[in-house]
Amino acid sequence: MFNRFKDEEPKLTTGQVEAYLKANGRNAASLLAAFRTSGDPALLKEAMEKYPKDPQVAFEAVLYKDLSPEEKRQWLNTFEKSAPDNALANYLSAFNYFKAGQTDQAVQDLTAAAGKSLNDYTLNRAQADEEAYLSAGYSAAEAIRISDSWLVLPQLGEIKQTARDMIALANAYSQSGDQASAQASLQMAMNMGQALRGASSSSAALISQLTGMAIETLALNAMDLNSPYGGNGQTVQDQLNQIVRDRAAISELVQRATPLLPTMSNQDVLNYENRRRAFGEVAALQWVVSKYGQP
Hints:
Elements: H1 14-24, H2 28-38, H3 41-50, H4 55-63, H5 69-82, H6 87-99, H7 103-113, H8 122-135, H9 140-149, H10 155-175, H11 179-200, H12 206-221, E1 228-229, E2 234-235, H13 236-257, H14 266-279, H15 281-292
Antiparallel strand pairs: 1-2
Helix pairs in contact: 1-2, 2-3, 2-8, 3-4, 4-5, 5-6, 6-7, 6-10, 8-9, 9-14, 10-11, 10-12, 11-12, 12-13, 13-15, 14-15
């Protein structure tokens, strides 16, 4: 069963999503899940019209490709207002400002993100999609597998590009002799990477953690490698070396677990996906290796 939906995401029919929506009262979460699992943009538009102040509706709207620049900015502003403690809203707004050439506004957004945690709604989105597939008659193992493996995370690319923009800005500051602003810009990029890694511990997506590592690596490589980093006597190079070790450990784990995944029973697929959501993908893969790997 693990490989059954590996190559193509099964899309729900209009009839299937309508039955699901009827059972759930066409609330914001169910409309968004119906949109994601069917691909029908009318369902997203319905959610946007009915629930314009819901942060998850705003998040999904921001990711939608067919909005005009003016509509996208409106929904970014709505996302920031409806989720004032979520750094993700600031990051996506900053990406949009950088894209529009409005650097000062982008920096203001990233300054506002300082100290906030990041919630990309991965778990909420996957659970809602799972309910839609269950409603359509898929088994528990099938529904959770599809909803976790096919959930799209386009925000990661936007966050990584925003970090690149901040690093480029830091280089410009450095060339002009403004070292304080350069360091502040690099620290903002580091904060983005660290926020992704922190959020990934409760997320089903290992790619979030790897993207966070990639951002941190970009920022650290733009610093003086011999300069102090943190308060424990380490240098920037020491921190880079630690990230290399962390990434290598993850790569080894994935290589060991990947051939084992298709051998699991349907019940263990369900167990794996539940562990993935509860403890993160690294912990779930470690469980697979411990149960199915060679002693």
